[in-house]
Amino acid sequence: QVQLVESGGGLVQAGGSLRLSCAASGRASSEFAMGWYRQAPGKEREFVAAFAMSGGYTYYKDSVKGRFTISGDNAKNSVTLQMYSLKPEDTAIYYCGYGTNWLMLSNWGQGIQVTVSS
């Protein structure tokens, strides 16, 4: 059973930056993807970014392209989401996910709060 441990997050002013990290343990698949979804209060959970661990491919929600960067470390089975130029609308709980591919993230961490003040 894959378990995910998230770290990072916090409170930052608009225009600032934050970094989220997620490490997976108990991985059984040789090919997998990890990524992040987020959910703001009263809103639907939405995809943010994902990383295909085998090939290093990245995928992003349109609204974060150019501001967020996702990277992976195969040796540590981890991903990092570097967030720049944060906006108040980025405020949400961010959840790390794991799956067989970036479209099928099915195992989740507990979530980390990201708050961006204006």
- Alpha plus pi helix count: 0
Q: What's the helical proportion of residues?
A: under 10%
Beta-strand fraction estimate: over 45%
Whole-angstrom Rg: 13 Å
Order of helices and strands: EEEEEEEEEEE
Describe the structure using short key phrases.
7-stranded mixed sheet; single chain; 4-stranded antiparallel sheet; 118 residues; mainly beta; 56% strand
Report on the structure:
It contains no helices and 11 strands. It has 118 residues and is mainly β. Strands 2, 4, 5, 6, 9, 10 and 11 form a 7-stranded mixed β-sheet that branches. It has a 4-stranded antiparallel β-sheet with strand order 1-3-8-7, with no helix packed on it. It has strands spanning 3-8, 10-13, 18-25, 33-39, 46-52, 57-60, 68-73, 78-83, 92-99, 105-108, 112-117. It is globular and about 45 Å long. It is 0% helix and 56% strand.
